[in-house]
Design a protein that fits this description.
Shape: elongated
Number of domains: 2
Number of strands: 0
Structural class: mainly alpha
Number of helices: 7
Largest sheet: none
Order of helices and strands: HHHHHHH
Length: about 150
């Protein structure tokens, strides 16, 4: 997708080109972003390189130029922060009843049965369900969300 956009970047106005990059590249990076929690580091680096390439393409930067300023100007988060932000948004929606039903519900520590009232109940901490130590279970939304 980036190679095709590179071919038309000179014939499209800058604002339009930036909207194209956001709509065609970033939406693909953000699709299913919440399942990327706990992803291996080398895979996160590969996704980050796609994000960096999109920012370089938008601002006509060379590969040797620093990318941080371009990401700040575009108001784009880096991949680990993007994943965490998506998870936080999903947790917020679940807690306020705005999420889809299949995401289930999250319980506060104070709402658990057979628990004494704790001082930590006022901190709005979420209860973490007990899981076995497998990579798939540790990356599931009920585990990652809290």
């Amino acid at each position: 997708m980036l190679r095709q956009l590179w071919q038309i970047r000179r014939s499209v106005p800058t604002d339009t080109f930036q909207m194209l990059v956001v709509s065609l590249v970033l939406t693909r990076l953000d699709y299913g972003n919440s399942v990327l929690a706990g992803l291996l580091v080398y895979l996160v680096r590969r996704l980050q390189s796609v994000l960096n390439a999109a920012a370089r393409l938008t601002y006509h930067l060379r590969r040797s130029d620093h990318i941080t300023d371009a990401l700040v100007c575009l108001h784009w988060l880096r991949m680990p922060e993007r994943v965490q932000y998506k998870i936080d948004v999903l947790v917020h929606k679940v807690l306020h009843g705005l999420a889809l039903q299949y995401l289930g519900s999250l319980n506060y520590v104070a709402d658990l049965p057979d628990r004494r009232p704790l001082h930590s109940a006022g901190t709005n901490r979420l209860a973490e369900p007990p899981v076995k130590l497998t990579t798939v279970a540790n990356r599931a939304f009920p585990v990652v969300g809290p």
